[in-house]
Amino acid sequence: MTARPKSLSAQKRPLAAHKRIVIKIGSALLVDRASGLKAGWLEALCADITGLRKSGAEVLVVSSGAIAMGRTVLGLPAAALKLEESQAAAAVGQIALAQAWAANLSHHDIVAGQILLTLADTEERRRYLNARATIAELLRRGAVPVINENDTVATTEIRYGDNDRLAARVATMTGADLLVLLSDIDGLYTAPPAANPDAEFLSEIPAITPEIEAMAGGAGSELSRGGMKTKIDAGRIATGAGCAMIIASGKPDHALSLIDEGGRSSWFAPSGSPVTARKTWIAGQLEPAGKLVIDAGAERALHAGKSLLPAGVTSCDGAFHRGDTVAVIDASGREIARGICGYDIEEARRITGRKSAEIETVLGYPGRAAMIHRDDLVLTAPRPRG
Question: pTM for the complete prediction?
């Protein structure tokens, strides 16, 4: 079940043909719980990275494994860790992990630069720009940024929780044209292959549609299918910003080389219309402050490039203020867009369903005609069929 992307620019290319590549490494690939770092595997991967660099590509790494490394070093039990134990393990593991990357890349005369990010570093505009500038300077000087979530300070309430979405956010932040997710999953299937022998492997995905989301557990579902849902979430963030994505197994040595040699992988085509830098930031926000539910007419208007007017909003929820990012939800409950709202939640509720000409009468002052102006709105789902 392979569909061809529509444009030549969206064709799958060799890894080295890309200008800037973000590679995400799953924890289980890099660390063995009993023995610690998988040194041979890391050495092989760094050789692959060196090959990409020699071909002219810039490479960034999003590396899991700090907590896993730390718990091995500290001799922590295999049972679930308390928050303070996880953070202590991360503190020890981050040093060990950085040393491992630096040592292996130095064998190829490459400098590694460690960057630890929290959710706020990518969700707050000023910190987002600062992190982006730091990464850009490292790349300009020929270093390989090695990025991870700062698990020593992140809490359950304010964290990414998975490096798939962090990697997608890094890809959009840095303007990468390819995101590679390496894990113990070799790609996307139409159904769980272990439970369904008729499950079909998808080698190319032209767009992330509701059908594709359903294969990964679907939006809002508790099914996760081995972490595939977070990978599809990452795909929506990356491809919407014009960045292609590949999901491949990282278990074998030289996993990156194997992709180009025809190893099994799923390739997600980038959007044909990459959004501007500001809209990239809006679309990639992981924690919208609220949501606006809209009717079918408003949905058609958004896909036609128009602003979201109060008349097309049926309900709103959250604790957002003017200037906050909110999710735009269709009648079926699916997110279709994100944007910066021009009203506080209480004002938004009062003008929901009203014509723009009525805003002054309802609020007592001449507010903005649009709930979300088109310049502050970015679509996150394809146009519905029919």
Answer: 0.78
